[in-house]
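About this split. The held-out portion is used to measure sequence recovery: a designer receives only the structure tokens and must propose an amino acid at every position. Recovery is the fraction of positions where the proposal matches the reference. Here is one held-out target exactly as it appears in the evaluation file.
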């Protein structure tokens, strides 16, 4: 017996204690934690690197779109040419202003006499430059009978050459600008008649089939009208729904069914909402296609789940003591919600709404389904006029074969990213500025 006891005592002494076991595994756990942190940091750095490469590519391709090559011509606004029958404003609106540009180019290059050479010479100036002259005469009829130096946009091929996107050292067969045009460009450069100026048309013009005349104003107005309509519809409905579900709705199978479906709708692909809008608003109700009114209805359906979920989370963040104090002072349930709970939850609701609007601003798929992919030249001024939005405009330009549309696509992406970052920054500011921590 004594020998057995002695052996048991020796075994107990040799058995490692719990503290020793923990100490031995501690180094292993710390090593695993360091590896996990390294993996996370590596993932973050890779994400930032890819984001930097993406932004660098977009900016590198798009910053040149903010300047445009222009040619200075002495335009003689010949009244007999523009309005030979003295028809007034209607005649001036329908006059051949491109003929004035051709006359000015022929005067500047009198040695160009061959028909083919003249065609190449006239092609150096944008075919849409005549519209700019028409706007000048319409705004100021005193120009008639005068010779005025005017800066007009060059053709997109000339613009690409001046920006370095076309190598002038290549063989003439491999570039879109021939040797004679290069000589004319050099002559204009010596006479300081061809320069790169700020591209105001990019911000003031609508869409165009000519890259040098294309702008984003129509798409920006369409996006603005669509977002305003979406906010006016989705915010009050979303807030009212969140207040009802969180404060007034009884807990039963019906409300549980509604909550589950709201959470599911937040994860539904956006194109499904476009199909719903096509089936209901266009085919069933007969609303006009390609208009902001139908765009805001579709985007309202898409953003409502996000606003409702954010609104409910904001209401839950208000401490119960606020409600109890208001009710203890004799306020009714409705007064407690409207006068105390809702104002405290409003910053979070606004943050969720802005995030929902930012998502709506960047959506393309649902708007393609309702016809907002149409080629729109005029700038919309109401909710019922045909229009497009900035993401769809980017989609259209990205599908264009001209090299000049590549830089305009990237520039439009830069503008869209600016608005998206600004809206998300506003959401962060509102949350930090007005959010209360209890």
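Reference sequence for scoring:
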């Amino acid at each position: 017996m004594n020998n057995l006891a002695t052996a048991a005592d020796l075994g107990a002494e040799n058995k490692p204690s719990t503290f020793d076991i923990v100490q031995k595994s501690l180094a292993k756990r710390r090593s695993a934690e360091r590896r996990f942190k390294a993996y996370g940091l590596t993932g973050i750095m890779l994400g930032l690197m890819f984001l930097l490469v993406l932004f660098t590519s977009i900016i590198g391709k798009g910053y040149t779109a903010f300047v445009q090559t222009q040619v200075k011509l002495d335009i003689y606004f010949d009244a007999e040419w523009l309005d030979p029958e003295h028809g007034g404003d209607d005649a001036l609106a329908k006059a051949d202003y491109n003929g004035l540009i051709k006359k000015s180019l022929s005067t500047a290059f009198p040695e160009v006499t061959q028909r083919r050479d003249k065609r190449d010479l006239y092609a150096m100036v944008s075919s849409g430059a005549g519209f700019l002259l028409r706007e000048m005469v319409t705004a100021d009829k005193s120009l008639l009978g005068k010779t005025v130096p005017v800066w007009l946009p060059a053709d997109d091929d000339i613009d690409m050459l001046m920006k370095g996107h076309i190598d002038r050292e290549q063989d003439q067969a491999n570039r879109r600008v021939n040797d004679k045009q290069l000589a004319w460009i050099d002559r204009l450069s010596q006479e300081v008649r061809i320069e790169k100026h700020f591209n105001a048309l990019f911000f003031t013009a609508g869409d165009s089939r000519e890259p040098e005349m294309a702008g984003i104003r129509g798409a920006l107005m369409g996006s603005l009208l669509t977002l305003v309509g979406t906010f006016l519809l989705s915010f009050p409905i979303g807030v009212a729904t969140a207040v009802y579900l969180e404060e007034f709705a009884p807990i039963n199978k019906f409300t549980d069914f509604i909550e589950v479906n709201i959470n599911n709708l937040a994860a539904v692909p956006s194109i499904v909402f476009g199909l719903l809008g096509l089936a209901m608003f266009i085919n069933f109700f007969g609303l006009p296609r390609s208009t902001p009114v139908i765009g805001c209805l579709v985007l309202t359906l898409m953003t409502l789940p996000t606003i409702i979920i954010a609104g409910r989370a904001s209401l839950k963040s208000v401490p119960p003591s606020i409600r109890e104090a208001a009710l203890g002072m004799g306020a009714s349930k409705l007064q407690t919600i409207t006068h105390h709970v809702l104002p405290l939850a409003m910053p979070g609701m606004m943050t969720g709404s802005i995030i929902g609007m930012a998502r709506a601003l960047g959506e393309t798929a649902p708007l393609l389904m309702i016809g907002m992919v149409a080629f729109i030249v005029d700038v919309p001024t109401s909710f019922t006029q045909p229009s497009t939005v900035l993401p769809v405009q980017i989609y259209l330009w990205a599908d264009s074969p001209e090299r000049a549309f590549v830089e305009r696509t990237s520039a439009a992406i830069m503008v869209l990213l600016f608005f998206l970052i600004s809206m998300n920054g506003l959401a962060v500011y509102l949350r930090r500025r007005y959010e209360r921590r209890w």
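Annotator remark: The beta strands are 67-76, 147-153, 194-198.
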